[in-house]
Write a structure and sequence with these properties.
Protein name: Cytochrome P450
Family: Belongs to the cytochrome P450 family.
Mean pLDDT: 83
Strand content: 5-15%
CATH class of one domain: Mainly Alpha
CATH superfamily of one domain: Cytochrome P450
Number of helices: 15
Order of helices and strands: EHHEEHEHHHEHHHHHHHEEEEHHEEEE
Helix content: 40-55%
Number of strands: 13
Keywords: Heme, Iron, Metal-binding, Monooxygenase, Oxidoreductase
Organism: Streptomyces brasiliensis
Largest sheet: 6 strands, mixed
CATH architecture of one domain: Orthogonal Bundle
Radius of gyration: 22 Å
Shape: globular
InterPro entries: Cyt_P450 (IPR001128), Cyt_P450_CS (IPR017972), Cyt_P450_E_grp-IV (IPR002403), Cyt_P450_sf (IPR036396), Cytochrome_P450_monoxygenase (IPR050121)
Low-confidence stretches: 70-81
Length: 436
């Protein structure tokens, strides 16, 4: 296939761009942005860098654009003609009702209690491997929110699937690679089986319990709008996606707070003032402005979904360039969020930009897409933000998490954007300041 012309990437050829991307993916994404709003990576892949083009691509997913791989990297039919896709989108819409603001209000203080229990365990050991510990916490939070306060073996099985899914640092040939994929598929089947068991149990044994995501999907099954397997599938996808992204973002957040002690102090003062020593609830969010701004700025600088890709299902024209079915278009939230045309001091950690929005210059939509956008936007976007605010406030009210002196975290992009090698020391926090 011969692509239409367009501005080539910074290395000037498809082969050169691929080499540069392989050596330093994030650095390449920042450099290619300087080549224009639409950049030709090679004949099969273009990159879009303006909010207008990003909005066009993401909003037209499931129509002009499709997704050809699922969360496990398996090939899938993402075309608009797929009946499976239509059922999947129906399930997503129903699950989204449980993950919205009303559903989170119903959760009350349950999330903070889970965080407090895990944080107490971290304090007992004194040191944690950040990504592993935070993934365990996030898996429990999303499992309870989707399935209720007794999520069975789901958190453990989510962790097993995550471990099986991680690609090898060095590619293994032949039989070893096949065995790894078999292990991953078995882990996915085991997780689906456990979710299926728990959903079926809720269907037959509910006695006025607080509604969770599973309950909404069960009702849809009873009405004939969704199959039971479809309900299980969408819960599994949400469990897996939300736990990984939330954990990575929290790891970056605690690292950033320690690198900016003045901001950490402001967040601690806010937590002490607004909570007075009790655990936070979703109702406290409007008063935790600094904490929420820290969360949003962390997601801007270090969006877990740092690279998104779509494939053309039908011809389209982007920035005057005609593209053909089968060609791909990529969006990088990491590069978009660091565009100096969109953000003042884009590389700086500056949470105040989210507090006084009325005084900030007006920017176009789709300049902030840490969870993607359009019909395939991450369903857990609001859940993830709220969970991060509650987790941050809970931890800051009691403990201090600081990087261990001997650890040197680095960017890790093999799956989502993580601080690889981050180890956190966990200590009791200094006494709260008493207002006079």
């Amino acid at each position: 296939m011969v692509a239409a012309s367009g501005q080539l990437g910074p290395e000037g050829s498809g082969f050169g761009n691929r080499l540069a991307f392989g050596r330093d993916a994030l650095g390449f994404l920042l450099r290619q942005r300087e080549c224009g709003d639409l950049v030709r990576f090679d004949d099969g892949l273009y990159m879009v860098n303006s909010p207008v083009l990003v909005e066009h691509v993401l909003k037209n997913t499931n129509g002009t654009y499709g997704i050809t791989k699922d969360l496990l990297g398996e090939e899938t039919d993402g075309s608009r003609a797929s009946e499976d896709l239509a059922r999947w989108m129906q399930a997503r819409r129903l699950a989204g009702r449980g993950l919205n603001r009303g559903g989170l209000r119903a959760a009350r203080d349950g999330m903070a209690a889970v965080v407090a229990r895990y944080a107490e365990g971290w304090r007992a050991t004194g040191r944690i491997e950040a990504i592993g510990a935070l993934e365990e916490l996030s898996a429990r939070l999303i499992a309870e929110f989707c399935l209720g306060s007794e999520p069975g073996r789901v958190p453990e099985l989510v962790a097993r699937l995550q471990d099986a899914r991680l690609p090898a640092a060095v590619a293994w040939p032949g039989r070893v690679s096949v065995l790894r994929r078999r292990r991953m598929r078995q882990a996915a089947r085991d997780l689906a089986a456990e979710v299926s068991r728990l959903v079926a149990a809720r269907d037959t044994g509910r006695d006025g319990a607080t509604s969770v995501v599973a309950d909404l999907l069960i009702e849809a099954c009873a009405d004939g709008a969704l199959t039971f397997d479809g309900a299980v599938s969408v819960i599994v996808a949400n469990l897996f996606a939300a736990h990984e992204t939330t954990a990575a973002a929290l790891a970056w957040l605690f690292l950033l707070l320690e690198r900016h002690p003045q901001l950490r102090g402001r967040a601690v003062d806010e937590v002490d003032r607004e909570l007075g020593g009790r655990l936070p609830t979703a109702a406290d969010l409007p008063r935790l402005q600094v904490t929420e701004a820290v969360v949003k700025e962390t997601l801007r600088l270090y969006p877990p979904l740092w690279y998104l890709e779509r494939v053309l299902e039908e011809p389209d024209v982007l920035d005057g360039v005609a593209l053909l079915p089968g060609q791909r278009v990529a969006v990088s939230p990491f590069a978009l969020h660091r565009d100096p045309a969109l953000y003042d001091e884009p590389a700086a950690f500056h949470p105040d930009r989210w507090i006084d929005r009325a005084a900030a210059p007006r920017v176009p939509g789709y300049t902030y897409v840490p969870f993607g956008g359009g019909p395939r936007m991450c369903l857990g976007a609001h859940f993830g933000t709220v969970a991060m605010v509650i987790a941050t406030a809970t931890v800051l009210s009691r403990y201090r998490l600081s990087p261990a002196p001997d650890c040197t975290p680095v960017f890790h992009t093999r799956t989502i954007l993580q601080p690889k090698g981050l180890v956190l020391d966990v200590a009791d926090r200094e006494p709260a300041k008493v207002a006079r």
